[in-house]
Design a protein that fits this description.
Length: 159
Amino acid sequence: MRRMMSAIVALMLLAMPAVHAVQPDEIMSDPVKEARARDLSRELRCMVCQNQSIDDSDAPLARDLRLLVRERIAAGDSNPQVLDFLVARYGEFVLLKPRFERQTLLLWLLAPLLLAGGGFALWRQIRRRSRNGTDVMAPLTPEEEARLAALMSDDATSR
């Protein structure tokens, strides 16, 4: 039982995001600017971890990106300017949620198009089956009827 509890606690700790990824020396003195930096950090992908924001990642590159975001905010850049700077430097991949633009159109539309295509193919298959009459069962042959009757009579006598 003790092993089970320790395993559950270990899994819960692994499942939790890295809450303390932002180091105390990174935090800005102005709480408004720090809040902006944290919001921006949640929108940016850690290039090492790839499925974490730089706000959650302990990777050295994520720390560098957090410092860069705070540096740009301290220089007076707006949030869109900071994001544009990072996209120009690292590419669209740095954004956790890519922008809806011509370059990312396929990324945004591929899943709905595949879902619609699959639904259409399923609808056509069902329609084709019902038109061909394959959904309707063929009548039994006399041999099959005799065998079924024998099986049913055997089943009724064994009860």
